[in-house]
Amino acid sequence: MLNEITDRIEKLEHDHKQLKYQNLENNKLPEKIDEDIQRLNRLKFRIQNKVENEQNTNFKTAEIKENDVDDLKDTRRIKKEKKDKSLDIKNETENESGQWMDNSKSVLLKGVNQDQFRRYELAYDRVKDFYRQQHEKQTVAYNIQARINFKTKVRDRMSVWDALVKLNKLLDESDPDTELSQIDHALQTAEAIRRDKKPRWFQCVGLIHDLGKLLYFYDAQGQWDVVGDTFPVGCRFSKNIIYYDYFKENPDYKNPLYNTKYGIYSPHCGLKNVMLSWGHDEYMYNLAKEQSILPPEGLAMIRYHSFYPWHREGAYKYLMSEEDKKSLKIVQTFNPYDLYSKSDIRYSVDELKPYYLELIDEFFPNKLVEF
Ligand SMILES: [Fe+2]
Ligand SMILES: [Fe+2]
């Protein structure tokens, strides 16, 4: 079912590339976009009717029982996997992957106390308020609309460096670990990757991975649709998502179309077919896919870096394809640099600027990027 929605969005994107919207007179543009949105809504209702027709009266009870068993199995499996996790990752990265995925000699990881990060039990009220809003408002309907908004206009044109400078005005309300500025975080991440002698594309990802937070200055309704951990919408929310209880106020939580294990997806359909909650990861991934020459590994890091329920907690494995197994290791290679590089060390922006300007030029061929 999601394939249909994805195809429809792809079609919109294709039409957009064909200058469909640009060729319209200004007064016809809202009408055309509205027409497309209505077509998507009709599609959504068709899907909903189809699923409802297939359900019989005993379905709900059976489903609840099935879900409880699934939860239990999931929790047991995740516990077991966590136990062996560090050993598994080390062996797999050494045996199957490129050298750049080996973090065992990381300078960063040697000096860091990993227990000091993501301590949500000690989080400020602003973090809890943020997640209350995010969990209540990230619905399938909102996510479809956000993607339509994204695909149908260009918000700004500027260089990547200017975008980083612009982003510096944002304080991320979802982050319990740091109140440093965004440019400090971008440089800390990139510098930690560079110090560990990772490839230049990897360093570039470190620098720009959060650049999608620019969304906050354009179409966002708050911070809840820009930052924070991400998760799939359109299927049951995992209990491994931080502050899970706040989902009880999300309309999709009670919607039989979206609250089953697979919801609108099918087993092992692949994460590329899954709609992750809209925010800076999805936004930047889409920009970088079109406008950079970063390799697929770098794009995976950007798209999934906030998907903690998956890359850290081991949830949603039943949606993964074979290809996603590789992506998981890739994202886990990136994650320590994003998380553990947060410190009070401030780099000199002026001193580092020439190095990173050159790096940006290497992977973003056009001087101006369309945001
Ligand atoms: Fe991020
Ligand atoms: Fe980050």
From TrEMBL:
InterPro entries documented for this protein: Inositol_oxygenase
GO MF terms held by the record: inositol oxygenase activity; iron ion binding
Reactions this protein catalyses: myo-inositol + O2 = D-glucuronate + H2O + H(+)
EC number(s) reported in the record: 1.13.99.1
Residues annotated as binding Fe cation: H185, H209, D210, H280, H305, D338
Gene Ontology terms describing biological process: inositol catabolic process
Enzyme class: oxidoreductase
Keywords: Coiled coil, Cytoplasm, Iron, Metal-binding, Oxidoreductase
Positions contributing to substrate binding: R118, D172, E173, S174, K213, G228, D229, H305, S306
Coiled-coil region list: 2-82
Domain of life according to the entry: Eukaryota
Pathway(s) the chain acts in: Polyol metabolism; myo-inositol degradation into D-glucuronate; D-glucuronate from myo-inositol: step 1/1
Entry's localization field: Cytoplasm
Cofactor: Fe cation
Main location: cytoplasm
A GO cellular-component term linked to this record: cytoplasm
Assigned protein family: Belongs to the myo-inositol oxygenase family.
Protein name: Inositol oxygenase
